[in-house]
Write the structure tokens for this entry.
Amino acid sequence: MSKILLIDDEEVNVRVLAMSLRSDGHEILCAYSGQEGLAVFEREHPSLVITDIKMPGMNGIEVLRQVKCIEPEAEVIIITGHGDIENAIEALKLGASDFINKPIRDEVLTVAIQRAEEKRSIKRQLREYTDNLEIKVCQATDEVQRKSNFLAKLIGSSNDGIIATDQNLVIVIFNPGAQRIFGFREQEVLHKTIITELLPDKLETLFSHPPDQNNRQALTSRQEITIEAKSGSLIPVLFYTTPLYEKSQVVGTVSFFQDLREIKRLENELVQAERLATIGQTAAGVAHGVKNILHGFKGGSYLVNLGIDKHDKEKLTKGWNLIQRNINRTHGLVMDLLSYAKERPPEYEPCEPNNIVKDVYEVMLDLADEHQVRIETDLDDTIGTVCMDPNIVHQCLSNLVSNAIDACLFDENMEKQWHVIIKTVLDDDRHIQFSVTDNGSGMPEAVLSKLFTSFFSTKGHRGTGLGLLVARKSVEAHGGTIAVSSVEGKGTTFTVRLPFEHECKADNGNG
Amino acid sequence: MGKKVLVVDDDPDVRLFSIAVLEEHGYTPLEATNGEEGMQLIRKEAPDLILLDVLMPRESGIRLYRQLKTDAKLKNIPIIILSGITRKSFLRSQKALTEFGGEEVPEPKMYLEKPVEPEELAAAIGAALK
């Protein structure tokens, strides 16, 4: 029920109406002039005002105006004289909720009050709803803002480069990580550049044919690519891209780039550190080699001294030969150590691999003859002039052939006719395979597994344990591989597979 | 004929050196290039002294040394080890082999580390044969 203010200058009217409305359960306030009514209104804040229109002093229209001014939500019902339609319209224009004609009939008044109450309650609900809506919109906006800030910070602080595009592949996000890698500032590419312009050509199809949405799991796998930065420098990155979908439509792409420069640098450092460690660890190995050589020199000078003292030419000759052999051993050890310790990038130049094999054959012929080993070549004459590092090929084959001769030397089976075969095969358009096969002693599994470890040698005084390490290192620097297969008692084959170019590029000289 | 001294070493230059010293001092040198060949010669010739290298391909000096020292008939032949590896490393290898389940063997009569002076070698041979 409502709190109702009745205003009328005729006290009787007020009393009758008040009685009737109180009996309906309303709380009634009474006033007998416009001024008094406003004073009560301001004090009591009734929800409904019923005022007579014609009153001395302040009339009903003025009361209505003032009430609406003080409390726009309050409802006002105007009581008009019979036929005073103009005032009634004026009152409605000013926001009165209703008007009732005199004489007032109870049922008309009841309906008017009900309508006023309904109107008020609808207004209140509407206001609450609007207020709530504003709060909810504020909360949602804050949340969206926060999430958006969070995502922006996430993208911004990622160490990896992140580039997002719209469906036309135009860049819309280019985070600081991407700026560091590619060398472009955000404003240089944003809304201007198509992502594929920054990437190697081979990736273009990846973007022109995004994977089916039903096949989202089968997105592009990570791959290592080299991108060209603004400065022109080539930068290795780990790259990954995925289309962005909205209701099964591709709306853009996002790509991630992990800068691999630091990792590559660390890898190189590690290789260097390993090399140093190998040398450190095996200083004992070198010391052993040096001690043996020194022992040889002492023996040689002893024999030379005996020869001089006794005029014994045989001793003199033996001693001098011994010294010369140890000079060679010193040379071999020092050269192996140097080439192992030294970082030497391949130097590519035009050369004929078959001619290198012939050179190695010539050089090794004497050594082979000395030990009754037959040495042969089997050359693929489709190999002509190619671009490779001839020194690496020469050094590596010399090493393998001298190993092969040693393997024959160590063979106990005296009935064999030992032989070593150097073979070349054009493996495919980009690779040549060199192999060195012997029918010497072969190697047991235990030896095979240690073959490429530093200073491992089964040759006693004959080996420094560095030869194969040096060979493998230079083959790998040339982008090739070295493999071995061996059967104990039957022989061994070393296979070296090296890549080549048909022609040396002008800038290839420094490797 | 002087006393028989067997030189076991895979390096022909080392054998040449040792044999020159032996001949110079009136001994009769014998030579073997590995442990296996050395064992055959020891059984056949019964040398008075053995000059033994440690690191050799195939039958190593370490194995030959342990075979000799655990053979009742041969364990009294004096042995001089002449090697590029240090005495400490050699003894460590012996200790490891003993712990691995082998019989404990006595230390060699003498241990010479390469390089060695001819006079030093001659003196060691003389002392070992006394």
In short: The first strand of chain A starts at residue 3 and ends at 7.
